[in-house]
Amino acid sequence: MEMKYKTDELTDEIRNLGLTTGAELVGFASAEKLEKGAPKGHKPSDFLLNARSVIVLACGRQLNEDRDYVYKWGPNFSLTYIKLKDGIGQRRKEARRSVEAVKNFLTKRGFKAITEMHGWSGVLSFKIAAYLAGLGVFGKGCFVVHPQLGPLNILSCILTDTSLKYDTPLEIDVCGDCVECIKACKYGAFKKVSKSYKWIPEKCRCYDLIMNPVNLKWTYGPCNSKCVNACPIGNHLNLNF
Length: 241
Hints:
The chain is of the alpha+beta class.
């Protein structure tokens, strides 16, 4: 089936489809590259046997600060109240549509396509996939930053068994002397090592599980990614600030 399609043309069609159905950026990476160095259980082949390509769809900081938090300290963080800001829910639906559109496009042409929806991935490293796909670089705060859009807040991955034209990782310094993300962290999750900074996961409060008392579902907080929101790149694009 794959031989019926020219790699360049298929890649261009997928990119255009993603961009016209809700994604702000679409990039492509070799599944083999993502396979290297990934721990057992988190490789593309653990998700889709014979995976060849990773398609990454991203939206930038227009989706920042999508929740309002009212937080009170407690043993299980059950007093955290969460509310999606007006308009954000609709944009998240648009981002989901782009993923489904690309997935359906592939499956209708006989290719296998498995989706890792945006949010936290149980298998793939979205950040490394986005970097390999040329959508941004790792800033001082260890999140992926696009040179124009800023932090990429919505990342989705599609694994497929077809070969595509792969993008090249960006080799640029987006941070310079800026340390706003480091200063924004109140939990000591960054440690200076020589001229760079190391992220300390166990001190990061972004990953604390907290319960939404309205729908009784678990989500992450309580810091609401203040380090990400402090990044000045793309600030003028964020209507929520």
